[in-house]
Write a structure and sequence with these properties.
- The structure is a single chain.
- About 45% of the residues are buried.
- It contains 13 helices and 8 strands.
- The protein is an alpha/beta fold.
- About 50% of the residues lie in helices and about 10% in strands.
- The chain has helices at about 5-10, 15-25, 30-40, 45-60, 70-85, 105-110, 135-145, 155-160, 165-180, 195-210, 225-245, 260-270, 290-305; strands at about 60-65, 95-100, 120, 150-155, 185, 215, 250, 285.
- The longest helix is centred in the last third of the chain and has 18 residues, at about 225-245.
Protein backbone atom coordinates (compact mmCIF):
# COMPACT_ATOMS: atom_id res chain seq x y z
CA UNK A 1 0.00 0.00 0.00
CA UNK A 2 1.60 3.31 -1.04
CA UNK A 3 2.26 5.96 1.57
CA UNK A 4 3.10 9.62 1.10
CA UNK A 5 6.73 10.56 1.54
CA UNK A 6 7.35 13.19 4.26
CA UNK A 7 8.31 15.74 1.60
CA UNK A 8 4.76 15.67 0.22
CA UNK A 9 2.77 15.05 3.41
CA UNK A 10 2.05 18.73 4.00
CA UNK A 11 0.39 19.25 0.60
CA UNK A 12 -2.75 17.47 1.82
CA UNK A 13 -2.96 19.36 5.10
CA UNK A 14 -5.77 21.61 3.85
CA UNK A 15 -7.95 22.27 0.83
CA UNK A 16 -5.88 25.37 0.05
CA UNK A 17 -2.56 23.52 0.29
CA UNK A 18 -3.80 20.73 -1.96
CA UNK A 19 -5.19 23.17 -4.51
CA UNK A 20 -1.92 25.12 -4.49
CA UNK A 21 0.09 21.96 -5.08
CA UNK A 22 -2.13 20.54 -7.85
CA UNK A 23 -2.38 23.83 -9.70
CA UNK A 24 1.35 24.30 -9.31
CA UNK A 25 2.11 21.17 -11.34
CA UNK A 26 3.65 21.93 -14.75
CA UNK A 27 1.07 22.62 -17.43
CA UNK A 28 0.63 20.05 -20.18
CA UNK A 29 1.47 20.93 -23.79
CA UNK A 30 -1.34 19.08 -25.63
CA UNK A 31 0.34 19.26 -29.05
CA UNK A 32 3.64 18.00 -27.69
CA UNK A 33 1.99 15.23 -25.65
CA UNK A 34 -0.05 13.93 -28.59
CA UNK A 35 2.92 14.18 -30.96
CA UNK A 36 5.13 12.13 -28.62
CA UNK A 37 2.41 9.51 -28.12
CA UNK A 38 1.94 9.25 -31.89
CA UNK A 39 5.69 9.02 -32.48
CA UNK A 40 6.16 6.21 -29.98
CA UNK A 41 3.25 4.40 -31.60
CA UNK A 42 5.22 4.07 -34.85
CA UNK A 43 8.07 2.03 -33.32
CA UNK A 44 8.50 -1.28 -35.19
CA UNK A 45 8.65 -4.55 -33.24
CA UNK A 46 10.61 -7.53 -34.58
CA UNK A 47 9.12 -11.04 -34.61
CA UNK A 48 10.82 -12.35 -31.45
CA UNK A 49 10.02 -9.17 -29.57
CA UNK A 50 6.45 -9.31 -30.85
CA UNK A 51 5.97 -12.81 -29.47
CA UNK A 52 7.26 -11.63 -26.10
CA UNK A 53 5.05 -8.55 -26.21
CA UNK A 54 1.92 -10.59 -27.02
CA UNK A 55 2.49 -12.94 -24.08
CA UNK A 56 3.25 -10.00 -21.81
CA UNK A 57 0.07 -8.23 -22.90
CA UNK A 58 -2.02 -11.36 -22.27
CA UNK A 59 -0.56 -11.60 -18.76
CA UNK A 60 -1.53 -7.95 -18.12
CA UNK A 61 -5.22 -8.21 -18.99
CA UNK A 62 -7.97 -7.73 -16.42
CA UNK A 63 -10.51 -9.91 -18.24
CA UNK A 64 -13.71 -8.01 -17.62
CA UNK A 65 -17.47 -8.39 -17.69
CA UNK A 66 -19.46 -5.49 -16.29
CA UNK A 67 -22.96 -5.82 -17.69
CA UNK A 68 -26.36 -5.83 -16.06
CA UNK A 69 -27.01 -9.16 -17.78
CA UNK A 70 -24.00 -10.92 -16.20
CA UNK A 71 -24.84 -14.39 -14.91
CA UNK A 72 -22.90 -16.86 -12.74
CA UNK A 73 -22.42 -19.00 -15.83
CA UNK A 74 -20.85 -16.15 -17.77
CA UNK A 75 -18.52 -15.33 -14.89
CA UNK A 76 -17.47 -18.97 -14.54
CA UNK A 77 -16.74 -19.15 -18.27
CA UNK A 78 -14.72 -15.93 -18.04
CA UNK A 79 -12.72 -17.32 -15.12
CA UNK A 80 -11.96 -20.50 -17.06
CA UNK A 81 -10.75 -18.41 -19.99
CA UNK A 82 -8.60 -16.26 -17.69
CA UNK A 83 -6.78 -19.35 -16.40
CA UNK A 84 -6.38 -21.01 -19.82
CA UNK A 85 -6.95 -18.38 -22.51
CA UNK A 86 -6.13 -20.89 -25.25
CA UNK A 87 -7.11 -24.42 -24.14
CA UNK A 88 -5.26 -25.88 -27.15
CA UNK A 89 -1.96 -24.37 -26.02
CA UNK A 90 -1.17 -24.56 -22.33
CA UNK A 91 1.95 -22.42 -22.81
CA UNK A 92 -0.35 -19.41 -23.16
CA UNK A 93 -0.02 -17.27 -20.02
CA UNK A 94 -3.01 -16.68 -17.76
CA UNK A 95 -4.48 -13.21 -17.56
CA UNK A 96 -3.74 -11.02 -14.55
CA UNK A 97 -7.28 -10.87 -13.18
CA UNK A 98 -10.98 -11.33 -13.71
CA UNK A 99 -12.92 -8.10 -13.09
CA UNK A 100 -16.58 -8.27 -12.08
CA UNK A 101 -19.26 -6.50 -10.07
CA UNK A 102 -19.20 -7.10 -6.28
CA UNK A 103 -22.11 -9.54 -6.34
CA UNK A 104 -20.14 -11.79 -8.71
CA UNK A 105 -16.89 -11.82 -6.74
CA UNK A 106 -17.68 -15.01 -4.81
CA UNK A 107 -18.60 -16.79 -8.04
CA UNK A 108 -15.35 -15.73 -9.69
CA UNK A 109 -13.31 -16.70 -6.64
CA UNK A 110 -14.87 -20.19 -6.55
CA UNK A 111 -14.46 -20.68 -10.30
CA UNK A 112 -10.76 -19.76 -10.23
CA UNK A 113 -10.25 -22.53 -7.66
CA UNK A 114 -6.90 -21.29 -6.38
CA UNK A 115 -5.43 -20.37 -9.77
CA UNK A 116 -2.87 -17.57 -9.89
CA UNK A 117 -5.39 -15.07 -11.27
CA UNK A 118 -6.62 -12.15 -9.17
CA UNK A 119 -10.26 -11.28 -8.58
CA UNK A 120 -10.84 -7.59 -9.18
CA UNK A 121 -14.11 -5.86 -8.45
CA UNK A 122 -15.46 -2.47 -9.38
CA UNK A 123 -17.00 -0.63 -6.45
CA UNK A 124 -18.09 2.79 -5.15
CA UNK A 125 -21.27 2.91 -7.25
CA UNK A 126 -19.44 2.17 -10.50
CA UNK A 127 -19.50 3.65 -13.13
CA UNK A 128 -21.05 7.02 -12.23
CA UNK A 129 -20.05 7.09 -8.57
CA UNK A 130 -23.22 8.99 -7.69
CA UNK A 131 -23.85 7.66 -4.20
CA UNK A 132 -23.27 8.66 -0.60
CA UNK A 133 -19.87 7.81 0.85
CA UNK A 134 -21.41 5.25 3.22
CA UNK A 135 -22.91 3.39 0.28
CA UNK A 136 -19.58 3.44 -1.55
CA UNK A 137 -17.73 2.08 1.46
CA UNK A 138 -20.32 -0.67 1.96
CA UNK A 139 -19.95 -1.58 -1.71
CA UNK A 140 -16.18 -1.84 -1.24
CA UNK A 141 -16.39 -3.87 1.98
CA UNK A 142 -18.87 -6.30 0.40
CA UNK A 143 -16.49 -6.96 -2.49
CA UNK A 144 -13.52 -7.50 -0.17
CA UNK A 145 -15.53 -9.76 2.13
CA UNK A 146 -16.53 -11.86 -0.88
CA UNK A 147 -12.88 -12.38 -1.78
CA UNK A 148 -11.77 -9.52 -4.03
CA UNK A 149 -8.00 -9.11 -4.29
CA UNK A 150 -8.32 -5.73 -5.99
CA UNK A 151 -10.83 -2.88 -5.91
CA UNK A 152 -11.42 -0.57 -8.88
CA UNK A 153 -13.05 2.60 -7.53
CA UNK A 154 -14.33 5.67 -9.38
CA UNK A 155 -13.61 9.20 -8.19
CA UNK A 156 -16.31 11.82 -7.73
CA UNK A 157 -15.76 13.65 -11.02
CA UNK A 158 -18.31 16.30 -10.10
CA UNK A 159 -16.39 17.22 -6.96
CA UNK A 160 -13.08 17.16 -8.82
CA UNK A 161 -14.32 19.41 -11.63
CA UNK A 162 -15.77 21.80 -9.04
CA UNK A 163 -12.31 22.10 -7.50
CA UNK A 164 -13.24 20.21 -4.31
CA UNK A 165 -9.96 18.33 -4.32
CA UNK A 166 -9.82 17.60 -0.59
CA UNK A 167 -13.23 15.91 -0.76
CA UNK A 168 -11.98 13.63 -3.53
CA UNK A 169 -8.75 12.97 -1.63
CA UNK A 170 -10.57 12.08 1.59
CA UNK A 171 -12.96 9.79 -0.26
CA UNK A 172 -10.08 7.88 -1.83
CA UNK A 173 -8.46 7.60 1.61
CA UNK A 174 -11.70 6.18 3.05
CA UNK A 175 -12.01 3.61 0.25
CA UNK A 176 -8.32 2.78 0.69
CA UNK A 177 -9.02 1.94 4.33
CA UNK A 178 -12.18 -0.04 3.49
CA UNK A 179 -10.20 -2.05 0.92
CA UNK A 180 -7.94 -3.50 3.60
CA UNK A 181 -5.25 -5.67 2.01
CA UNK A 182 -6.83 -5.45 -1.45
CA UNK A 183 -4.94 -3.34 -3.98
CA UNK A 184 -6.77 -0.17 -4.97
CA UNK A 185 -7.14 1.08 -8.54
CA UNK A 186 -8.46 4.65 -8.76
CA UNK A 187 -10.45 5.40 -11.93
CA UNK A 188 -10.49 9.00 -13.15
CA UNK A 189 -12.81 8.70 -16.18
CA UNK A 190 -10.39 10.78 -18.21
CA UNK A 191 -12.98 11.36 -20.94
CA UNK A 192 -14.94 13.49 -18.47
CA UNK A 193 -12.03 15.49 -17.07
CA UNK A 194 -11.92 17.78 -20.14
CA UNK A 195 -8.22 18.74 -20.10
CA UNK A 196 -4.83 17.10 -19.89
CA UNK A 197 -4.00 19.40 -16.98
CA UNK A 198 -6.92 17.88 -15.08
CA UNK A 199 -5.69 14.36 -15.86
CA UNK A 200 -2.25 15.25 -14.48
CA UNK A 201 -3.84 16.73 -11.34
CA UNK A 202 -6.10 13.71 -10.86
CA UNK A 203 -3.11 11.39 -11.24
CA UNK A 204 -1.19 13.13 -8.47
CA UNK A 205 -4.29 13.38 -6.29
CA UNK A 206 -4.90 9.64 -6.56
CA UNK A 207 -1.30 8.80 -5.80
CA UNK A 208 -1.17 11.15 -2.82
CA UNK A 209 -4.25 9.40 -1.44
CA UNK A 210 -2.65 5.96 -1.63
CA UNK A 211 -3.71 4.48 -4.96
CA UNK A 212 -1.89 1.29 -5.92
CA UNK A 213 -2.92 1.92 -9.54
CA UNK A 214 -4.25 4.91 -11.42
CA UNK A 215 -6.72 3.96 -14.15
CA UNK A 216 -7.97 5.93 -17.13
CA UNK A 217 -11.58 4.94 -17.53
CA UNK A 218 -14.61 2.84 -16.76
CA UNK A 219 -15.06 1.85 -20.39
CA UNK A 220 -18.61 3.20 -20.18
CA UNK A 221 -18.14 6.61 -21.84
CA UNK A 222 -17.31 7.72 -25.38
CA UNK A 223 -13.62 8.54 -24.76
CA UNK A 224 -11.64 5.98 -22.79
CA UNK A 225 -7.95 5.05 -22.83
CA UNK A 226 -5.85 6.84 -25.45
CA UNK A 227 -2.09 6.79 -26.03
CA UNK A 228 -1.89 10.45 -25.00
CA UNK A 229 -3.77 10.22 -21.70
CA UNK A 230 -1.93 7.00 -20.81
CA UNK A 231 1.42 8.61 -21.62
CA UNK A 232 0.53 11.49 -19.32
CA UNK A 233 -0.31 9.09 -16.48
CA UNK A 234 2.91 7.13 -17.06
CA UNK A 235 4.85 10.38 -16.73
CA UNK A 236 3.02 11.03 -13.47
CA UNK A 237 3.87 7.65 -11.88
CA UNK A 238 7.49 8.00 -13.03
CA UNK A 239 7.78 11.47 -11.49
CA UNK A 240 5.95 10.40 -8.33
CA UNK A 241 8.43 7.57 -7.75
CA UNK A 242 11.35 9.94 -8.34
CA UNK A 243 10.00 12.26 -5.63
CA UNK A 244 8.71 9.73 -3.12
CA UNK A 245 10.30 6.35 -3.81
CA UNK A 246 6.76 4.89 -4.10
CA UNK A 247 5.86 2.98 -7.27
CA UNK A 248 2.26 3.13 -8.53
CA UNK A 249 0.75 1.12 -11.38
CA UNK A 250 -1.17 2.30 -14.44
CA UNK A 251 -4.24 0.73 -16.04
CA UNK A 252 -5.61 2.01 -19.36
CA UNK A 253 -9.12 0.70 -19.87
CA UNK A 254 -11.67 0.84 -22.66
CA UNK A 255 -11.11 0.98 -26.41
CA UNK A 256 -7.92 -1.15 -26.60
CA UNK A 257 -9.00 -3.95 -28.91
CA UNK A 258 -6.10 -5.12 -31.07
CA UNK A 259 -2.65 -6.60 -30.58
CA UNK A 260 -1.20 -3.66 -32.49
CA UNK A 261 -2.81 -1.27 -30.00
CA UNK A 262 -1.54 -3.29 -27.02
CA UNK A 263 2.03 -3.30 -28.34
CA UNK A 264 1.87 0.49 -28.81
CA UNK A 265 0.89 0.87 -25.15
CA UNK A 266 3.74 -1.41 -24.04
CA UNK A 267 6.17 0.79 -25.99
CA UNK A 268 4.74 3.80 -24.16
CA UNK A 269 5.39 2.05 -20.84
CA UNK A 270 8.96 1.10 -21.70
CA UNK A 271 9.92 4.48 -23.13
CA UNK A 272 8.19 6.63 -20.51
CA UNK A 273 8.06 4.93 -17.10
CA UNK A 274 10.67 2.28 -17.83
CA UNK A 275 11.12 -1.48 -17.64
CA UNK A 276 10.15 -1.61 -13.96
CA UNK A 277 6.54 -1.15 -15.08
CA UNK A 278 6.64 -3.94 -17.72
CA UNK A 279 5.05 -6.42 -15.34
CA UNK A 280 1.42 -7.15 -14.52
CA UNK A 281 1.99 -6.04 -10.94
CA UNK A 282 2.43 -2.50 -12.29
CA UNK A 283 0.63 -2.33 -15.63
CA UNK A 284 -2.76 -3.70 -16.68
CA UNK A 285 -5.12 -3.54 -19.62
CA UNK A 286 -8.80 -3.19 -18.78
CA UNK A 287 -10.17 -5.14 -21.72
CA UNK A 288 -12.23 -8.07 -22.90
CA UNK A 289 -12.15 -8.16 -26.71
CA UNK A 290 -8.37 -7.50 -26.71
CA UNK A 291 -7.61 -11.01 -25.48
CA UNK A 292 -9.13 -12.72 -28.52
CA UNK A 293 -7.06 -10.66 -30.95
CA UNK A 294 -3.89 -11.37 -28.96
CA UNK A 295 -4.69 -15.10 -29.08
CA UNK A 296 -5.23 -15.01 -32.84
CA UNK A 297 -1.95 -13.17 -33.37
CA UNK A 298 -0.19 -15.64 -31.09
CA UNK A 299 -1.55 -18.57 -33.09
CA UNK A 300 -0.40 -16.91 -36.31
CA UNK A 301 3.14 -16.52 -35.01
CA UNK A 302 3.19 -20.16 -33.94
CA UNK A 303 1.65 -21.72 -37.06
CA UNK A 304 2.15 -19.15 -39.80
CA UNK A 305 -1.60 -19.14 -40.39
CA UNK A 306 -4.23 -16.67 -39.26
CA UNK A 307 -6.88 -18.79 -37.55
CA UNK A 308 -9.67 -16.20 -37.39
CA UNK A 309 -12.27 -15.46 -34.72
CA UNK A 310 -13.98 -18.86 -34.93
CA UNK A 311 -10.97 -20.40 -33.17
CA UNK A 312 -11.34 -18.40 -29.97
CA UNK A 313 -14.22 -18.27 -27.53
CA UNK A 314 -16.77 -15.49 -27.72
CA UNK A 315 -17.30 -13.88 -24.29
Amino acid sequence: MPSIAPALADVTASDQALRRFLHGLPGVDPVGLEARAASLGTRSIKTTAKAYAIDLAISMIDLTTLEGADTPGKVRALAAKAVHPDPTDRTTPATAAVCVYPDMVATAREALNGADVKVASVATAFPAGRAALGVKLADTRDAVAAGADEIDMVIDRGAFLAGRYLKVYEEILAVREASGAARLKVIFETGELSTYDNIRRASWLGMLAGADFIKTSTGKVAVNATPANTLLMLEAVRDFREQTGVQVGVKPAGGIRTSKDAVKFLVLVNETAGRDWLDNHWFRFGASSLLNDLLMQRQKLATGRYSGPDYVTVD
